[in-house]
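Hi team,

Filling in the usual template for the complex we talked about on Friday. All components are listed, including any nucleic acid strands or ligand strings, so the model treats them as one assembly.

SUBMITTER: L.P.
PURPOSE: interface mapping
COMPONENTS: two
RESIDUES: 797
SEQUENCES:
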Amino acid sequence: MKEENYQSIIEEIWPKLRKKHLYPEIPVPKVRSTPDPEQGESQEDEGVGLEMKHKQMVINGAFVSQMKGKMGEKRIVEALLDHGITHYTFCPWDFHTHLRLYSEAKKVMGDKELAKKVSNCFIDVIADTHCVKKRFTEIPELHRNLRKGAVEEVIASLYQKIWGIDLGIPSSKIKGHADIIRRLARIPYLDRSRWGESIQKFARSLKPLLVEEQKEQGAKGGKGERNPQGEHDLNHYSNEEIDQGLRDHARQTMALSDFKDVVEDFSEELKGVGYGMEGGMGRGQGNPIDADVLFYMKLAENYSIPLKKLPLEEKGSLHPHSHSPWEIGSPFQDVDIWTSFGKIMPGITQIWTRREGKGRGKMEGTPDCLIAIDSSGSMINPRKSLSYAVLGAACATNAYLQNDSKVAVYNFSDAPMGGKDILSYTDRREDIYRALCKYFGGGTALDFEDLMPLIQGRKNLDLFIITDMKITNLEQLVGFFGQIQNRVTAVHIGDNPYAARFEKAVEKRKNISIYTVKRKEDIPHIVLGRIRDYFNPNPIKKP
Amino acid sequence: MKSSIPPKKNSILPSDRENWISKNPFEEFKTFTASTHDLPLDQIVQSTEAIMDRIRLGYEKLLEEEAKELVWMVQYNTIIKAYEVAEKYVKEIDYSAEDIEDFCFALENTQKVPYLIPGPAGVYISALCNYAKEEEIALKLSELKTEINLIGFRLPKGKRLVIEGDTGDFTGIGLEGGELVIEGNAKNWTGAGMRGGKILIKKNIGLHTGEWMMGGEIYVGGRVRGLGNIVEGKVYERDKLVYPGKVRYPNLYY
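RESULT (copied from the run log):
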């Protein structure tokens, strides 16, 4: 049957399928044309019936043609679409669930490929079981007719047991794996809240079989058979879903190592969907993915910290500045009737020349920000475990960048001895995060000569410093803050005598706000650029 | 002249009511029934849960009786008494080997089992294994974070218990003729007081191995860190007989 005929089948059954699955927001599935070997088109994907990319399901015409001797074409298409739709409506539902299941499977399997395989199997079992339980579907018939390897036979035997439908697996084959099937049948597949522990049990039970299969495939020197119901990769998800999934995963794991493991395992796929870094973690081609930077980036997106705006001196609109003689053709609306004596006459009539005005407007704006971050030995290494300092600074970075301001980073440890990294004002998020994630791990001292070039010449500039305050030249820092008028947000990680001393020393300075971060929950309480008595019209006196 | 006919009221409903109903966009949901089939899976999961609840309850009762202050000292008397209590609860439950494995993992889930005390937990698991219907029990515990003590306690003749993963102290103590296979490491006091049967440890074993053992055999695939005071029985290290023999002395570190 030709491609057009399959498309007409889809169009015929699609309204019924939509109704059956309670009207999911999925576009009408398409049909992929049968590969033409004469034109050199590959036939290796003949075994895959369904592809899913960005919510678009594509039926493989070659697969349906190949299967049509065993069951009706309409039934094949319906079964494949039932399966595909259930992935969107039940399992995995979103990218975060997919990642969560994968990371749980990885804990048991240890191997990336095996973990991917087992999580894909698990997702399929859930989707098919849900469909068989809740809808009238042709999925069992499809499974009866699919070509099966060792693992697929075990899964089909499992279906026989848990669905109570004969799928034509001979009992001799079941006996060989009876203990595995018994274990698999005890898993509560449809209980979403227990998917985490369920996939571990699923992986534990299937592990020997999958390891054996992997060895056999390795010996043959090729890849295994592809999943006829479609592979589960990142192509399923849109870029926004991937962003959201990574954000949720970072928030829920809150563990750098877990996140890093998953991102590194999916690095190829992430690169494929445009997560290749250009010196950071944005979309674009470039260097390998820096999982640490991505972790803080995604985690920081979960927090929103307020940023007080500042009345800025901004360029105003055009205003009448001086007179010039009117000429024929000049606009009448610029004529100054008072100096022209009410006449329109060349040589007498004068028009206003307008100029762009400057003045303190009422519009509020956000200044640029200089972030000073302590990466001395007393601080947590952000590339080893979750650093609240980097997370806090990342949240501040996001707040300023979202307001179209630029951010500079002064990452210091023992700065006078060279333990520092300076990033000039930029709006490139990746570069900023990279600078924030740098860790020196030495002593703690600021070099104010480094800071001056970053501050000088900028009338409006916010300062954000995040440290544990165990700074050798803390007195100098207090003195420095005493001289500047800029809004300063100082965040200290944990309580200690140095922090108390700093607080005491700057308590009278209204432009300095101090916050303590002991837990991650403290981060949203930070208010950037807050000035005590902000609405007090009296200007802050110079010391 | 005014007409006597009253003015016609404008109705919000269309004249053809049936037609209006058919245009209701939600109309088809009136007839929609979500068909849910009862699958064998539902029954399997339900019965598994019920059994697991009973196993958990037995363990909690054991803790209530034997570890009131959540402290349990490993002594001859305490082990015997805890086992007797465990036996009492275990006998009442109809379970399979898979339920025992599930219980081992449930022990690490604080939402399911609030307290994991390795001693009583090991005694309880041993009682479960000893009273299980199956003659051969395989427990895949390699992903378990806790090494459970006292596993294989009093394993009777005719039973074979295979543990995938490492076990804690007092593995296979008081073995009564069964075969205990540990596909991993075992810690100290393994096989202490065993009367008969066989213990096979695939990897290494700790100190006091076979302390006061009265019979049976211990086979160790890796290293024996130290032998205990053995009364009778045999200990093999990598197929080489190390007890009885003059090569090894009790409680010496090798």
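MY TAKE: Chain B has one domain: 43-243. Strands of chain B lie at 136-140, 160-164, 176-183, 196-201, 217-220, 234-237, 240-243.

Thanks, L.
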